[in-house]
Design a protein that fits this description.
Elements: H1 3-15, H2 22-27, E1 34-35, H3 43-46, E2 48-51, E3 62-67, H4 74-88, E4 91-95, H5 104-121, E5 124-134, H6 136-147, E6 153-157, E7 174-180, H7 186-198, E8 203-208, H8 217-233, H9 241-260, H10 264-278, H11 285-296, H12 298-331, H13 337-351, H14 356-381, H15 388-401, H16 407-418, H17 422-434, H18 440-443, H19 456-466
Parallel strand pairs: 3-4, 3-5, 5-6, 6-7, 7-8
Antiparallel strand pairs: 1-2, 2-4
Helix pairs in contact: 4-8, 8-9, 9-10, 10-11, 12-14, 13-14, 13-15, 14-15, 15-16, 16-17, 17-19
């Protein structure tokens, strides 16, 4: 089927007909809902997920944000983007074919084929094809414009930058980031803005007061607006004075709200950024004046002083965590678990501080340490001959850094039982049950626990916390 014929086919599915057969009605592409697959007999296209804005019609061309997601829950993520997509007139698309286990080359090929299918099926604005990603998906989304021609920009949410060597300075693109100040990647992204500038990648990052999470919808809305404004500045989109004024007002309101909630540092950053975004589109006196007034305020000066102190402390602590974790894993240093427990105590104190900058420091360090241990666990798990000593230590460490994540207690029980260290197995069994764990079937089917699970000590602990044991306790 040719591209033009496909568009005619899609058009009739969209507008519908009282004379259409029931099957066609069931397959109709619908506006305003996330479609889990497309009604086309093609294996690639069938895996594409699609959201068409409420006012979608085939009489004009539309920008598209392609969600680069390898972690699942695409439907949920696309639903979360609906309101911002409706307001800003963006199609949202994704594919279920992307998997984390695929190579980068295969991921890029799948994204390329999916975009080609979308271009054939829908009236896309080829100057406004963008990628979008959350967390690790944001890193993938940021790589795509350097790998695929015709992708003009990125909306990256809660994600640091990928390896900068993968960003081609000869293929510039528009970058808009959205990042929480409590996100463990915050400091890295803040310092990476200069690297994007060096690669001549126009970039803006909208920071918000929360942590590593999907942000409030207003930030997604602002992010899409900034992408559109950047397109106007590079003349890829016709100038739209009404849109510019609306975005200007939204940006002003965001700054005023940050002021009202005591986020003086962010309010200053947004004022400075607003001046840059709207420059060459309209006058920017309001942003310039607002920036000056904030900079003179006592509240801003106090927060900046706290931030400067916290930033230095964070760099030192993050460096310590990276150094000592590598040392402990290589030497199987269980004696250092007490030091890690002490560090988590410090992090908890930061999180419970009355000072907001210290609270954010605690959130970032917590996220950073857990992400660091997870990375080591992932790398160790991929080895053809796993280092079980390292896996034991890392899972023990996770019971300290993420004490409510039961899986790591189970892993310690299993791996220590493999080596006959039943004393340690039973210690972590009791620690797990004290947390409220109650899946007895799982406790009796863990790998490597053939002898452990029939031992009196193991069963006595289970009977104490769960009321009964499967084997004798005497």
């Amino acid at each position: 089927m040719s591209g033009s014929m496909r568009r005619i086919f899609i058009f009739f599915l969209l507008v519908g007909s009282t004379m259409a057969p029931a099957k066609a009605q069931e397959l109709a592409l619908k506006r305003g809902i996330v479609m889990d697959s497309l009604p086309v007999n093609d294996s690639i296209t069938r895996q594409i997920m699609l959201y068409l804005p409420q006012d979608f019609d085939t009489g004009k061309q539309w920008p598209v944000l392609f969600l680069c997601d390898v972690e699942g829950e695409r439907n949920k993520k696309m639903r979360y983007l609906k309101a911002a997509a409706d307001k800003n007139g963006y199609i949202i698309a994704a594919t279920r074919a992307l998997k984390d286990s695929l190579s980068l080359t295969d991921k890029i090929l799948i994204i390329s084929k999916s975009l080609d299918e979308l271009k054939a099926l829908l009236p896309l604005d080829l100057d406004r094809v963008y990628t979008l990603g959350y967390d690790t998906g944001g890193q993938l989304a940021t790589i795509v414009p350097s790998m695929l021609r015709g992708v003009e920009g990125v909306l990256s949410v809660a994600s640091g930058l990928p390896n900068l060597d993968l960003i081609n300075p000869k293929e510039p693109f528009d970058f808009v980031g959205i990042m929480g100040r409590g996100d463990f990647q915050y400091l890295y992204l803040l310092e990476s803005e200069a690297a994007l500038d060096q690669r001549k990648v126009p970039n803006y990052t909208l920071y918000h007061p929360e942590g590593h999470q999907w942000p409030d919808l207003k930030y997604l809305d602002l992010g899409m607006q900034v992408l559109t404004l950047m397109g106007m500045k590079r003349a890829a989109i016709p100038r739209d004075d009404r849109f510019i004024q609306s975005a200007y007002t939204d940006y002003q309101n965001a700054i005023l709200e940050l002021e009202q909630t005591g986020q003086w540092g962010l309010a200053y950053d947004y004022s400075e950024q607003g001046e840059s975004i709207f420059k060459a589109l309209t006058e920017v006196d309001w942003f310039r004046d607002k920036k000056k007034s904030i900079r003179k305020s006592k509240e801003y000066k106090d927060q900046k002083r706290e931030w400067d102190a916290v930033r230095l402390n964070e760099l030192v602590l993050a460096g310590d965590y990276l150094f000592y974790l590598e040392e402990d894993v290589l030497s199987f240093n269980l004696d250092n678990l007490g030091w890690w427990n002490y560090q988590m105590g410090k992090i908890t104190k930061y999180k419970n501080s009355t000072k907001r900058e210290e609270q954010l420091l605690g959130e970032r360090l917590d996220g950073y340490l857990n992400a660091l241990v997870e990375e080591y666990l992932e790398l160790s798990g991929k080895e053809p001959n796993p280092d079980y000593d390292g896996l034991i230590l890392l899972n023990m460490l996770k019971t300290i850094t993420a004490p409510e994540d039961y899986e790591h207690y189970l892993q310690v029980i299993s791996f220590t039982a493999k080596y006959g260290d039943f004393g340690t197995s039973n210690y972590y069994l009791e620690a797990l049950l004290k947390k409220g764990y109650s899946d007895a079937d799982k406790l009796y089917t863990l790998p490597h626990t053939g002898l452990l699970k029939i031992s009196p000590e193991y069963n006595a602990i289970i009977a104490q916390y769960l009321g009964e044991a499967r084997y004798a306790v005497e």
